[in-house]
Amino acid sequence: MSRGREMRAARRSAQFAKFRITELNLVPLVDTFVSIVFFALTTATISELTQVVPGVRLPEVTTGSTTIQQLTLGIGNQVTLGGHTVMNTADAASAQSNVPGQPLVIPLLFTALKARADSVRQSNRISVDSAIPAKLAIQGDKTMRYDLLSRMIQTARWAGFKNITLQVNPSVSATTATGGQPAASSGVPR
Amino acid sequence: MSSRFRRSKQQRAERAPFTGHGNINLVPLVDILTSIVFFSLLTYSGATMAALFAYDLSLPPVVITAPQATIDRHEKDLLNMLIGVRVDNDKIVVETSGNDPQGQHLGTSQEFKGSGALSLDQLQQYMTSLHTQYPNNNDLTVIPSDDVNYDNVIHVLERLRNSKYTGIALGTKTRQVMQAAASGDVK
Q: Do B180 and A167 touch (CB under 8 A)?
């Protein structure tokens, strides 16, 4: 090889030396993986949990199917729908129906539920008067009387919610005390 | 005499050629943790989260009296018995009505005194035997009285679920004018 060619090769090598990768910085990669693992674990945990309406003491049971986050109708001191207060529970209990032939319907709650049902119908392109597939979860205080619950259920069905589910609190102590069998006295009021 | 700080600095400078590429850069980690804390605080709503149980309610069964033109279900799937569970504060009554495939009347009425654990146990035992006897019938209607607590209703639903009934509907009495009390405390 001639001397000139060697010099040209040396110059070219020197020019490209600054682009040569001599080490790989793994820190950003590890940071990204840490973030992914963190959010994956957080999401897996949160997705199994359901939001409990504040101020509502749910009944405790030992058996039941697991639930997911749904549109929730809370019945404590206030009647809430999706976290927003609709009306006072005492007012709901004493409200007079304005629908002929449907004495159980609570007008103010019906308006709120109908608005939610209509938005679901619009997003799913369902006809106006048909039932919607979305479930409505009811979280009621355990001291509530059944006549109020029946009014809530009837109002929800009249608004278009045909799939209604009652959400209750699992009684962990009763389950562990009886070895997984249903407890005989799991908080049943006398 | 050099200070301790100066000696330490000098020792770090001597070690630098050997450990220069081994230092962990904590700045990106702190950045990410700061982002996580920021968005966690931003989205915190103070809501309590819990793993809850659910009881799905089905619509009350419809009694069809007129003969059907086409029945595409097998005979074993046909509902031939209606089961109603009335819940009061002092008793639980199970009533059945209907006919078996041989045309025999299935109407019965079974009453359990009280609404405590003992009557709930008896209810579960009776319903389990009823379901074993008539496995076609997975549907029933629970009709609580107006003044029954929600807690009692849920415990009856729990026992019925333990008895392998899957289609549980909540019914109510027919009435003209309705005014409910707000809770069990208001009577």
A: no
Q: What spatial distance separates the first Cα and last Cα of chain B, rounded to whole Å?
A: 90
Q: Which tens digits make up the pLDDT trace of B64-96?
A: 555 554 445 555 555 567 889 999 989 999 998
Place of tokens 């069809």: B64
Q: Report ipTM (2 d.p.).
A: 0.70
Return the amino acid letter for A39.
Answer: F
Q: Do B49 and A52 touch (CB under 8 A)?
A: yes
Nearest to A146 among B32, B148, B159 (CB): B148
Strands (E) in chain B, as ranges, are 48-50, 53-57, 81-87, 91-98, 108-113, 139-144, 167-170
What are the structure tokens assigned to A123, written together? 């997003």
Nearest Cα of chain A lies from the Cα of B34 at a distance, in angstroms, of: 12
Q: Which helix (H) or strand (E) holds B107?
A: none
Question: What are the chain B neighbours of A46 within 8 Å (beta carbons)?
Answer: 49
pTM: 0.70
Q: What is the pLDDT of residues A131-160, one digit of tens each?
A: 888 889 999 999 999 999 999 999 998 898
User: How near does any CA of chain B get to the CA of A5, in Å?
Assistant: 36
Complete DSSP assignment for A175-188: HHHTTTSPPTTSS-
